[in-house]
Design brief:
alpha+beta; Ribosomal Protein S5, domain 2; 11 strands; binds zinc ion
Length: 254
Amino acid sequence: MKPRQGQRPGQRPGQRPGQRRGQRQGQLKKEEAQKARLAEALASWVPKTEFGKKVKSGEIKTIDQILDKGGKILEAEIVDTLLPELEYELITIGQSKGKFGGGKRSIWKQTQKKTKEGNKPKFATVAVIGNRKGYVGIGYGKAKETVPAREKAIRQAKLNIIKVKYGCGSWDCACGEQHSIPMEVSGKCSSVIVKLIPAPKGTGLVVHKELKKILDLAGIKDIYSRTFGKTNTQLNLVKACIESLKQLSKVKTK
Ligand SMILES: [Zn+2]
């Protein structure tokens, strides 16, 4: 098989570009350090909201206790405490500028403000977080530099976390297991409509590339999707996808 463009030979699918096999060891240490840092940050966390205080004191033990009531999460630490195994992905919402047409998709959306001192660039990005076990969220972050923009987006995504309802709504399958979604749903953002359709077991995620990141982190195994409207606006596309996932928990199933 010919390797896809932008993918080095020997790079496994799902591996981020630039991450070679040899780097895995270092990556692991980095992850451990990150975990330790997170634990430290959580230990010194002083909650400001009511939910935050209850989470810190151990009165609230699961995130469902907040989400089922329709409570609003205002502190990212709540999510860090209750869902410690979150992973994140960045959505390609921008495109690079330059010669030869530019237009290569990038996770950074760059904007510039013209001032007396010169052009001041700003970076925006969209993060998806999820634990592959039914919780997923997206967030938008914008800052003068890329790293703070990413941090902001991840933090925002934690605050926007939702619970995804699994099921097996496919007529061709009807196994009753929790590998897909219980029924067809659709969500809208601006002109973009995303329709999510239950798929039989073994189908995989037959969806748009960026939506795959969301549904994968949500922990859905098999699904079809149809999209309508200006789907090149990826920010609206991912928002519409989250909207349709929200519909799942609104409708009561037997
Ligand atoms: Zn099934």
